[in-house]
Amino acid sequence: MADAPNIHDEAEVRARWGAFAWTDDNQRKANEVIGRYPAGRQQSASIPLLDLAQRQVGAETSTQGWLPVPVIEFVARQIGVPYIRVYEVATFYTMFNLAPVGRYHVQVCGTTPCVLGGSDDVFAACKNHGLVKGRTTPDGLFTLTEVECMGNCSNAPMMQINDDNFEDLDYDSTTRILEALARGDTPTPGSQTGRRSSEPAGGPTTLTAMVQDNHDYRGEWNTAHAG
Amino acid sequence: MPKLKVDGIEVEVPQGATVLQACEAAGKEIPRFCYHERLSIAGNCRMCLVEVKPGPPKPQASCALPAADNQEVFTTTPMVKNAREGIMEFLLINHPLDCPICDQGGECDLQDQSVAYGRGHSRYAENKRAVTEKYMGPIVKTIMTRCIQCTRCVRFAEEVAGVEEIGAIYRGENMQITSYLEEAVTSELSGNVVDLCPVGALTSKPYAYEARPWELKKTLTIDVMDAVGTNIRLDSRGRQVLRCVPRINEDVNEEWAHDKTRHAVDGLVRRRLDRPYVRQGGKLVPVSWDEAFRAIAAVDHGCSVAAVAGDLVDCETMYAAKALVRALGGDRFEGRQTGMDYDTSSLAAVNFNTTIAGTERADAILLVGTNLRWEAPLVNTRVRKAIKKGAKVFAIGPETELTYKAEWLGDDLSLLNDLPQAVRDAFGGAERPMVIVGGAALKGGHGAALGLVAALGLIKDGWNGFNVVHMAAARMGGLMLGYAAKGGIADLHDAKLTFFLGADEVDYTRFTGFKVYVGHHGDAGAHHADVVLPGVSYAEKSGTYVNLEGRVQRGERAVFAPGDAREDWSIFRAMSDVLGCTLPFDSLAGLREEMFAAVPALRHQGLAQYDWTMPAVGGSASGTIAGYPIKDFYLTNAICRASPTMQRCSAELVHGQDFAEAAE
Ligand code: SF4
Ligand code: FES
Ligand code: FES
Q1: Smallest Cα–Cα separation from B282: which of B630, B527, B546?
Q2: pTM over 0.90, yes/no
Q3: Exposure b/e, B534-548, CB count within 10 A at least 16 = b
Q4: Which end of chain B is more exposed for a tag (fewer CB within 10 A), N or C?
Q5: B246-255, B270-279, B379-388, B436-445: lowest mean pLDDT where?
Q6: Contact criterion met (CB below 8 Å) for B491 and B332
Q7: Number of domains present in the structure of chain A
């Protein structure tokens, strides 16, 4: 498959990650996660543990983190599940990186609502900032990935960078965010046009009478078309 | 028992049955890809859509829908027809049209169902997806672009084989079936996924591009690679057996066969003995049949004649050899080549009494000195089924991977004299307890294991939980025909003239007399024999076999033997003429009549009845089980040792040699 990542399982990967083990802190977290499930159902801990492991790898490599095969196997052993079962999970979710990524993993949504909202501009901004789809910038800072809908369509277009969503983007705001990150600043996540959440941009367009007080619309219903 | 109507036909199905099963009960054919009787329900191909009332006004997947009272199911309505056509179209979107070069062609579910239920033409003009091949080992060839993601192979590996190494990675359109990191699947049952795969994604590697199914002559016979007696079909073209596939027999192999059964057949055309030889000056020299017989006639045996049966021979061969030995005045027979000398006065005491199918019902199982996974893989799958139903398994012997969790008690045979409390507790509460004694324990632990019959209450009304697993297809038949000497094979060592019937596992150096080897492969026997007579293999003769549970089964001849080789019984018949003691049968039928008269239990196919009597072999067990008799699953007899596929399996799966790179 052209766009399925190549699974890294070379000798160097094994050598580098073969001895992966939880940090003390993560060991505590892992125990807690595993403890949430009744005996015999430890497989349920696959996703949280993979996430924890990816974060630890990220911390160790100053990146968003990824899941080398030996780390996936480590997680499988932790919960006593055959390797393939955890491996399936790791490959299923696009949030798990199967190859190294940069410090910031820029995931730009390219699904229809975001395209209509102007994701082309977001991609253009990324491109002009030196980001190439599927690659990591030479300074190791950014990895750009085009992803499918992330459920933020009403704030389209959007991108996710590590744990934060940046919404209502345009060319300039995208550039600003990338520059801030490159400087080492922490740009504010969320809507970049000042929306609190996904309320209509520019004020309500329906149920306007409800903005100030409660309003009983029932008298105005057009019952002729009801049913 | 829900009662429902399928296309107006009223049927009653057992509680828990699915709508698909109800449709089958009504005689309706429901197309399917992912559903398989012996696997869990996945419900992901959607080919089995039907219309069901009451229910939502849309087609429903019948394989995953429980049948309920008063349901009305329709399988012929326009909605169903449309749904099937639609699903077929979706499946074919990403399925290549490479039937002309696909080994599944002619026996492909997708082909058949697309003809039966699909549209006559394609509306798809876009690009198709392509998936890279995955390495799955020496048996399974993959062309993953053809995969329709039914996940049968995944479920088989997990549920039946117990080897969770196949999975589906990525998702959506990118979903791919693969073995973990594309390593060889380490299951001796891996070949079954080839049969399960409804399309040509998983095909047989050794059989790749060998033949089309319609060119093959299909012969129903019995497998001899182990003592299970797997029911098989040999597919041959001309003189060569091209492949071996299992037949369904619920009592024996269900519908599985292990890789040795399937793929040792390429050993049938290699290292064959195709003419008689006589040893002259230390070297085997090709001779005519007549010269070979004369060389035997020249032996001054003084009535010290014996016969050793190999692991693969049929009852007819053993009977004919025995008749000849008897006619020559000899009376020593043995089939336990490796020196076993357990008591055979009661056949029930060395039989798999619970029966293979019965194993599923056991609720407590104790394995004594058996690596069941290698000694009888298809009994092992039954043990797995028993475990799924809640059975607890204990094992005595060196720890080994059985594909399920067993509680290992240690490898000390004396454990039999005094079982740990945990075992006693488990068996105390068990209704259908089972003890399975393997070859590694028969030597020192047969008596003590028999002691468990009383101690653990193995025999109850309608239940006999004492079992011995044999590894040789010829064993039970041999024992019924009296191929057992008191002191085992050692009793035969000094015979002046010994006939070896395809016996390749014996220690020939111990035999001091004249050795005649009657067999089909140039293996150990031929290397040591004074006269070699070319016999035939199981594929080239009709024979009677008795499996480890005492089931009498008969197989047919699939092909003719190479060169001058002759059916074994006829060799003994012809030889008897030259030796001046003509045997009284001239045909296989005649031989059989005599054999049935001598051992009536062999007459009827099915379980032979052995009356349960306790042999006088009590006593306590001592010693440790150092290892299991089978050291290499893939190379246990002369046929598989001659098979390139089995050698490759052995090198790769048993000895860990890495072939993944070499295979594209
Ligand atoms: S390889 Fe065959 S059996 Fe396995 S999922 Fe694909 S189509 Fe089904
Ligand atoms: S389409 Fe972009 S978030 Fe849904
Ligand atoms: S057979 Fe029912 S969904 Fe596949």
Answers
A1: B527
A2: yes
A3: bbbbbbbbbbbbbbb
A4: C
A5: B436-445
A6: yes
A7: 2
- Chain B within 8 Å of A87 (Cβ-Cβ)? yes
How sure is the predictor about B157, in pLDDT bands with cuts at 50, 70 and 90? very high
| Residues B123-204, CATH architecture | 2-Layer Sandwich (3.30)
- Show residues of chain B in contact with A43, CB under 8 Å: none
For B294-324, what is each residue's pLDDT tens digit? 999 999 999 999 999 999 999 999 999 999 9
**Nearest by Cα to B48 from B15, B73, B12, B16:** B73
Of B379, B330, B353, B313, which is closest to residue B545 (Cα–Cα)?
B313
Q: What is the DSSP letter of A200?
A: P
Instruction: For residue B244, list its beta bridge partners.
Output: B234
Shared-domain flag, residues A84 and A109 = no
Rounded Cα gap, residues B588 and B591, in angstroms: 5
Q: Kindly report the average pLDDT of chain B as a whole number.
A: 94
Q: What's the angle, vertex CA B514, arms to CA B598 and CA B543, rounded to 5? A: 35
A152 CA closest ligand 2 atom index: 3
For residue A166, give the CATH number of its domain.
Answer: 3.40.30.10
Please report whether residue A209 resides in a domain: no
Q: Are B436 and B470 in contact (CB under 8 A)?
A: no
Tell me the two tokens of residue B517: 């080897």
pLDDT of residue A1: 37
Residue of A nearest to B185 (CA): A84
Sequence-separated (6 or more) residues with CB below 8 Å from residue B332: B305, B306, B307, B325, B485, B491, B492, B495
Question: Cβ-count burial of B126 within 10 angstroms (0-12 exposed, 13-18 middle, 19+ buried)?
Answer: exposed
Q: What is the mean pLDDT of residues B427-451?
A: 93
**Closest by CA position to B306, among listed B319, B322, B318:** B322
CA distance linking residue B550 with residue B458, whole number of Å: 19
Report the C-alpha gap between B184 and B660 in whole angstroms: 7
- The C-alpha atoms of residue B583 and residue B328 are separated, in whole angstroms, by 11
Q: Is A149 on the interface with B (CB under 8 A)?
A: no
Residues 6+ apart with CB under 8 A from A163: none
Tell me: the pLDDT tens digits for B233-265? 999 999 999 999 999 999 999 999 999 999 999
> Is B168 close to A9, i.e. CB distance below 8 A?
no
* Domain B353-468 falls under CATH 3.90.330.10: no
Residue B361, helix vs strand vs coil = helix
Domain layout of chain B by residue ranges = 3-91, 123-204, 216-271+632-664, 308-335+472-486+540-611, 353-468
Q: Does residue B584 carry a pLDDT above 50? A: yes
Q: Which residues of chain A have pLDDT under 50?
A: 1-2, 227
Phi-psi sector, B612: left (phi>0), alpha (psi -120 to 50), beta? beta
